[in-house]
Amino acid sequence: MISSKINHFFIEVATDYSGNVKEIVAGKFVKKEFVINTSIFTVCPFLEGTLEALPIKEPFLIEGMLIISSDKEYNVDIELFKDNDFVSVLIHNRTNVYKFVDQLNQSRNDLFFLKREIDEKNKELKRLREIADKANESKSRFLAMMSHEVRNPLNVILNYTDLIKKENLSEKVINYVKYLTISGKNLKVIVDDILDLSRVEAGKLELANEPISLQNIIEQLRNNYNASHTNKEIELFFNTSKDIPEFVFGDDVRIYQVLTNLINNSIKFTPKGFVKTEISVIKKEKNKVEILFKISDSGRGMTKVQASKIFEEYQQNKLSDSRIHKGAGLGLSIVKRLVTAMQGNVSVESKVNEGTTFLVEIPFLIDTQNTFRKKEKIEKLEGNFIKGKKILVADDNFLNLKIVEHILKKEEANYLFTRDGVEALLAMKKENFDLVLLDINMPNLSGEELIKQKKTFDNNNSRTPFVAMTANNTKEDIESYFSIGFDAVIPKPFTPKQFIDKLNNILSKSVKS
What we know:
By secondary structure, the protein is an alpha/beta fold. It folds into 3 domains: 6-98, PAS domain (Beta-Lactamase), CATH 3.30.450; 210-372, Heat Shock Protein 90 (2-Layer Sandwich), CATH 3.30.565; 378-512, Response regulator (Rossmann fold). The chain contains 15 helices and 17 strands. The strands form 3 sheets. Strands 6, 7, 8, 9, 10, 11 and 12 form a 7-stranded mixed sheet that branches. It is elongated.
């Protein structure tokens, strides 16, 4: 028994060889169009001439034909079978099938054009990406050049200012020197911020993952601000929770940078009152801990709109802020990016005329092996290893040489100055040195070109430690200097203490070896 639903999708009729309908065998599809003893060609004109030509007892299939019933078109497939006395005509209603096929074909066509459009878009994106990469490379080259050109004179300004401060000065000149120092340090901050932002944007900022002490970072902040903070109207507080792990793994330089930027920002916008730095534990597990750094102040505060934009680049909440507070508006943007890079989060809460609170949440792994203490013991130095040492210095900048001369003279070193790499090379051929300091960019023979000849030195200078003095202080630059033979790098601008510590560290290793 055939289902009634199926009956409506087909009809089978029997005709004679001339196409006259003799019997409706089965089915109900457009049944009213087939009348006994009438011609099937009325409904199926495409069968005319076909029935007589059919071979006997061989099935024949015709696909994709069209018939009309009650002004409605139907797509049909027809199976024909010719017997000795009649022709069996089986008509299948394929209207829905063909409709789906048409839709499928249309979709396939749409997919083809969509694919072609995507391919074209991908080619365009590739082209734009190449343009952006070239632009980033050009920007990086420009920033590297700018860094070098700015840091060299900046090194001179800051160090000569430091030297002037040690002279007997009148109160008026002391104030002038103080303002000069502040401006020089502000310029250094701006240069560092621009370069840091560039590294983050280029994806070249790599964070250290070393054992560090958060208590030491806070203690260092306290000592530095106690020494440098002169505004008696603002009181500074530094508090550390007792349950902070003794040592964790992280990047102490970047954490110090984040906290310094936030503290400096609070000091800038607090004419009177307090700036408080607190560290506490949010959540602690066996091997990891989540730390909250909270910097709050009693300053002028912000509106919700201002607070929502505070971490954007070049953002200053008032037009005059950049002039009054001396900044490019990059510090907090860099804080946001650094904290994000450390898998942390930074947010701000503020009320106008009440104050602002910055909340920095950073996860750390706990140093359970006390590797920090082992590292601290190894790095701790005692004594002056510079005194009496024979040091060669090559730098084409006369002002830089005078700064280095002042430091080495104070440390009682024996030193020889040369103005380029050629003079330094000639000096090393004549005598041996305990340490060689080379500026990277020098005329005639650069520091890089000279260090590559180190293995060809006949005397003991082949084993002498070489130190690069350079304003090119990106991670890539420093790694490249180590790779070509330098034992250490002193980035410009440097302070006398940084310079002395670096030389003591290098010379202490020479003594031990």
